[in-house]
Amino acid sequence: MRSPNPKIYGHVERFVPIEVNGQVFEVPDGIPLIRAFQYIQFELDGLVCDWTLFCFNDTIGCCDCTLTPPGASAPEPGRACCVRVAPGLRVDVLPEGCRLSPPATEEPAP
Ligand code: FES
Question: 15 lies in which domain range?
């Protein structure tokens, strides 16, 4: 695993698992969820988001998603720019314009 750029992700103390649409990713603890989506996209190749759709400042609801916070029993609406990563956070529905990357296809054996 590459070391995350501290100018983008801040000082990373540890990585914690979050679940996104049923897939588990290890991301820096405590960062905004929207930044974790970027981490998953650019560092783990696990997500594709159209970042031109995002305001990044809690203005227009462009990062609305459905989440299950750690310890919660039911999903609830949330904004990825306002929620921070914590161990066990689950993203049930990604914001519009984001989707998981398709799994890498394996080369057929010769
Ligand atoms: S990034 Fe626009 S409301 Fe969160």
Answer: 6-97
